[in-house]
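Database export, one record per block. Field names are fixed; values are copied verbatim from the stored entry.
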Amino acid sequence: MSFTFQQALTGLDAAAQQLDVLGNNIANSGTTAFKRSRVSFGDVYANSVSATNNNPIGLGVSVQAINRIFTQGGLTTTNNPLDVGISGDGFFVVQDVATGTNLYTRAGQFNVDAEGFLTTAGNQRVLGYSPNSGVPRNGPPDVALQVPTGSKDATVTTNINASFNLNAVDKIKTDALNGPFDPTKSDSYNNASSVTVFDQIGSPHTLTMYFRHIDAQKWNVYTLLSDGDNSLKPSVTPAPAPTGSNLSEDTIKPVLDTVFAVPAAAAGGFSAGGTDVILQYRENKSLSDSPLPAAASFVVSDTTGTSYAVNSVAVDPVTNRVTLNTDAIPAGKSLRVSYTPPTIAPLQDKAGNLVTGFTSQSAANLTPDSSTDVVKPVLSSVSVNGNKVVLAYSDTSILDRKSVPPISDFSVTVDGQPLSTPFRTGAGFDPVIDPIKKTLTLTLANPVQPGQSVKLTYAGPAVSGIPIRDLTDGSRTVGGIDYTGPNTAVAFTDQTVSNFTPVSPVALTLDFSGSGVMQNQESAFVDLSFDLTNAVNGTSPTATTPFAFRLNLASINPGAAFATTAFADNFAPNKLDQDGHESGSLAGFSIDNDGNLLARYSNGLTDVKGQIAIANFKTPEKLRAVTGNLYAATQDSGAPQTAAPNSNTSNGRLGVIKPGTLELSNVDLTQELVGLITAQRNYQANAKTIQVQNQAAQAILQAI
């Protein structure tokens, strides 16, 4: 009986502590992410390790430990974008601002304070990783997460990535039938598509791309930047000619421009009565006439499948032409010319660059009928853009750039009033002939205004004796009539043109194979530059000029491959995006499934402002509880291992983030109430032990 009072007292103390733990669990059953505690008991004996006799009677009970049970609490949806639950192991890392101490919590009831910091309900700052900092996402967090309170600055457009399908069977547009490209005339182009771009101060502009089908496998692309009723004409820097990775001048291959047919010359060993099929190359390189390619490298046929023998081949390095002398081809045939580069004596330029092989190049058979003795250059259109007057000639002849007539051969009237000094002259302003584009450009002394009617008259060679003419040379027989020398352009009178709104030059010419796949995809881009302060166009100087960006209609980047195609299907944009945006004010913030803190702006953009860090411990049960649903690391818990959500650490895998949810307490009220009854009975039983012991002691005293 000597130990009874002591035993009962330890029992009362243990039961009281159990009641305290159970009461605390019950009190926090509604606390976010609270983890219940459990009491561990142990019996007490007075034995010594070295004692020879054991005392079989214990001294009572002791509380050995009070442990946290870190089982997962249920997740409840709150729809608050800053509430975050963790599914799995781990703790949010927060910092006490006053002490700078790192603490840990499972309670993700976050807010944003006046300075924009993400904080807990107790005003501790949530730690994480800064965006694009290069900090590994498997180490200590490097920043207190913060949402900036200011607006998002505008970003200028620098790239447009676009791809389309251009309908391969769309009508081919020609100057003769449809006139030159004019954005105000829908018949002058096949399709158009627009995208909004942003200048340096975030002002939006509409860029429109116009697509004009110019040949069976070629399309021209034009661009206009529009501000309300004003259209801005860009300066265009096209992509260099593709030569793989080396774009130096000596590796630019000759490029085929046009193919046409004329009656064969009776000179140079050619057979009169046959046909000359002429391949006109661009003048970026001069073709080499030695060695001559074999006639067998070329195949000439018409669309009915009839082939025409190629008798001989001639190369003119001055005019950059290849002439194929063939058997006579009937008038009106639409021709196809194929070239396969031979291993010996291929077609090349003087630098040794091989002419790329081609297949099925279309050509109109322009053989004149018997009633015509010459094929003269025919004026197909006249256009005025500001102070530039452009005379475009038909494809029957290639103009001779040496045959520039004096400016005195031309006269101009504007709205019926003759101009005494219509043209500007001098260096850079004299008439210019482009033999490949077949144009003659004149510069007016003063630009005409929109809506004015312009009439241009050309007197012809009778005035000066220097006519506009083509490159035809040698003696030819046509319809039994002999003639020698170039064909003189027909004089014209009162060619009336309207002053079109300035339009862009050709930005790109896209070339497709017979299967609709773009050729030379690596050069399908163009650099465009616009002067936003151009007073002629009526725009205000609101942004830094020039406004320049790149238009990409194909990409060879394997990670983001796209390309414009020309299949026999409807016109459709497949990709159309750009990298600029207007400024925007902060509209809200949220957290995503990866733990990223996102800021949303009024311009529709979202920025990542950081990523939440998660930590776990080798023995989380040994963490020290701190007021406010927080824990502090101890020596027994081990050092924290921190990383991004759902990452592996040496302490195990971290849990995943569940935005818009909160973790509930893991307290089971039923279990706790049953435990409360048990602890109460234990307390009452130990009190009864003291009562019985007291009665026994009283009996002894009464017996004395």
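Remark 1: Helices lie at 4-27, 175-178, 461-464, 669-703.
Remark 2: The mean pLDDT is 78.
End of record.
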